Amino acid sequence: MDARIATFAQEVEKVLQYLQQEYSKLHTGRANASLVEHVNIEAYGQKQELRTIASISVQDARSLTIQPWDKSILGNIEKALQKIDLGTTPVNDGVLIRIHLPPMTEERRGQLTKIVDALAEDARISIRKARQIAHDSIKEEKEEDLRYTLEESLQEAVDDANKHIDDVRGRKEKEVMTV
C-alpha cells in the first residue's frame, strides 16, 4: 500500500473512532456508562475524567451509580454532572451518586436524530479534507499509470469510509428512535 493511501487510512480511522466516541455519549433512553465516563471532574488540583476516579455501574435500563474511590470528591462529581445535559439531576447520598434517566420524549428523540446526522456530516467533512490532502499529494506523482491507480485506491477508501459512516449513523438513529 502506498504511504499516501496509508496516511489517509489512518486519518479515516481517527475520524471513525471519534464518531463512535461521540455517538456513545448520546443518551438514547438506556443507561450506559459512556454517558458520563468522559466528564471532566476537578479533583486533586486538576481535571480528570470521571472513569479514572470512580466506578460507574449500570443499575438497570434507566439508572447509573457512580462510586468514587475517594468520597471527599463526591461534591465535585455531583457539580460536574449537573453541568452536563442528561435531563435529570444526580442524587448524592453521601456514599455514591445515583442518576435516574427520564424516559425519552418524541421531541428529544427528534433532537438526538438531528445531532446524530450532524455528527455524521462532520465526519464526512473530515474525510473530504483528508481526501483532498491525499489527492494533492497524488497529483504530484509523475508516473501517470501509478497516479491513476492511486486515485482509484483513494476513491475506494473514501467510498468505504462514507459507507461505514452511513452504517453507523443508521444504527444510532435506529437506537435513538427505538422506544
Short key terms for the protein model shown above:
179 residues, Topoisomerase I, Chain A, domain 4, 2 domains, two-stranded antiparallel ribbon
Q: Mind sketching the topology for me?
A:
Blueprint lengths: L2 H22 L15 E4 L2 E4 H4 E7 L2 E6 L5 H10 L7 E2 L4 E4 L5 H34 L4 H34 L2
Helix pairs in contact: 1-4, 1-5, 4-5
Q: TL;DR?
A:
This protein is an alpha+beta fold.
User: In the CATH scheme, what's the topology name of the largest domain?
Assistant: Topoisomerase I, Chain A, domain 4
Portion of residues in beta strands equals 15-25%
Average pLDDT reading: 89
Q: Specify the number of helices.
A: 5
Distance between the termini: 45 Å
Task: Note down, in words, how this protein is organized.
With 179 residues, the chain is of the alpha+beta class. The chain has two domains: 3-24 and 105-177, Topoisomerase I, Chain A, domain 4 (Orthogonal Bundle), CATH 1.10.132.20; 33-100, 2-Layer Sandwich (Gyrase A, domain 2), CATH 3.30.1360. Helix content is 58%, strand content 15%. It contains five helices and six strands; from the N terminus they run H-E-E-H-E-E-H-E-E-H-H. The chain has helices at 3-24, 50-53, 74-83, 106-139, 144-177; strands at 40-43, 46-49, 54-60, 63-68, 91-92, 97-100. A hairpin with a 2-residue loop joins strand 3 (54-60) and strand 4. Helix 1 packs parallel to helix 5 (144-177) and helix 4 runs antiparallel to helix 5. The longest helix is centred in the last third of the chain and has 34 residues, at 106-139. The radius of gyration is 21 Å and the shape is elongated. The model has no long low-confidence stretch (mean pLDDT 89).
